[in-house]
Structure prediction request, 224 residues.
Amino acid sequence: DAGVIQSPRHEVTEMGQEVTLRCKPISGHNSLFWYRQTMMRGLELLIYFNNNVPIDDSGMPEDRFSAKMPNASFSTLKIQPSEPRDSAVYFCASRFTGGEAFFGQGTRLTVV
Amino acid sequence: GEDVEQSLFLSVREGDSSVINCTYTDSSSTYLYWYKQEPGAGLQLLTYIFSNMDMKQDQRLTVLLNKKDKHLSLRIADTQTGDSAIYFCAETYGGATNKLIFGTGTLLAVQP
Prediction:
């Protein structure tokens, strides 16, 4: 398995534009997590899915953020409209219940 | 609520031991983890400990768990410059719901 795959690796966009981050988890894993990392706030859990169902989205900053997992092999995190304060590294991770969480390489988002 | 706390920064000299500390809130956590993040990369699992254990040793790494105080530590013996990274502790929060919560991360700087 190639591990957790995130795309794009880098994204630069203008304020107000829609941004979509993508994640392909490891095959067979039943949980998927979206995290955001910034210098100020560290690593924050935004949302996680169990068996493709969103379980806890209390970490999603506001309504501009949405996440979907239409099937076991794909998830998206969308920001619409984007703002400069959304600039961060966004990580996707997947795991099987009780097992190790594997992280993708992250998407570095810059909103100008 | 869930909360995992760590000190932000630790500086040691090459060859010395490093001790990174972490406190957590969920007494029902089954597993507690230590992850390492090198610059520009995602997080990788270093080691983990079951909640029914007090100590786990893995080569240069020693994990100590004090369940009464909800305190976890990671000791790195003979610290090398290659150990310079951010170290995160994490707990599985909420039992079967599989939520994985990370601490703020500790930046370990190893001076030659």
Remarks:
- The interface with chain A takes residues 30-31, 33, 41-45, 48, 88, 90, 92, 96-105 of chain B (CB under 8 Å).
- Residues 29 and 46 of chain B are 18 Å apart (CA to CA).
